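User: I'm new to structure prediction. If I give you an amino acid sequence, what do you actually give back? Let's try with this one:
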Amino acid sequence: MLAVANYHYIRKDFAAKYPSIFGLTPKEFEHQLIALSKQGEFISQEQLLGFRDKPFDKNYILITFDDGLMEQYLLAKPILDRLGIPFVFFINTSNYIERKVSLVHKIHMLRSEIPSLEFLQLINKNFKLELDALEKHKAVMHYNYDDSETAELKYLLNFKLTHSEQQLLIDPIFSEIYKEKDIAKSLYFEDEMLKTLFNNGNLGSHAHNHVPLGKLHLNELDLELTSTQDFFHKKFSKHASILSYPYGSYEASSGISEALEKNDFKLAFTMERAVNNDVETAPYLLSRYDCNDLPLGKSDLFKTKAIFEKPQFRKWYKNESSSINK
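Assistant: Good question. You get back a string of structure tokens that encode the predicted 3D arrangement of the chain. For your 326 residues, that looks like this:
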């Protein structure tokens, strides 16, 4: 079996006027890794790719990070290296071509300065957009570490507003507070870091832009996937083998397995909270746990049992009509 842990922010502290992200300090990160080491064997990207056409022979744990943040390299990588634990960093390749800050990170930064209710009022004023009861439920379930107002705000921003609508709302506010080029330079990996990570088998794609791939039109999806693979090929002379879906929800991850295969991806990761009992059944819909779901996390799902003890197995792929995900 395989359990995948996913991380974003690793910081020495998370003090903010309006706390907007849920990451770990380096000490918390190390303690969690040690706890995980007692429940399974850590696996590398290369090793995992070897199980695409054969069953697992033991219980494995894969460590992953989304968004390619500088703090991951500076604070998390030294701990992983010291403990001898393999890992994968997933990057949005547009950050390294356009040298701009992803909308998702602009939103995170602005949410630390602006309360959720004020943000919701801005969206309603500009777009006359609110969630119905079912969407509110989906929001709270997907963003289960947030209060209801913040969960609804995240859902509106990430799944109801189009990319262009988000830009219209966020970019003017962001430019009033921050200098984008300076933020981009300090927020993401440097070129030498990228080369080191790729050469060591520690790099994957998080798509070209940080957008929900499953909600794109076919031509937009194809551009996203070809653009990110073009970046990898030009920079490293090889395509990325694995991808993690931005946002990782069912809507953001479903219905695009054929497009991934066409663009030379071998595996892809959602944010379905579950254990994988194999890879070959649905290689483009592998499940992951947020770090807060795991032992010592803020919402530990495993206080009363081990991760691989009668686990919840992934189910999203059962709704797929794809011949690839069976």
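You can read the tokens as a compact description of the fold. Here is one thing that stands out. The CA atoms of residues 265 and 293 lie 27 Å apart.
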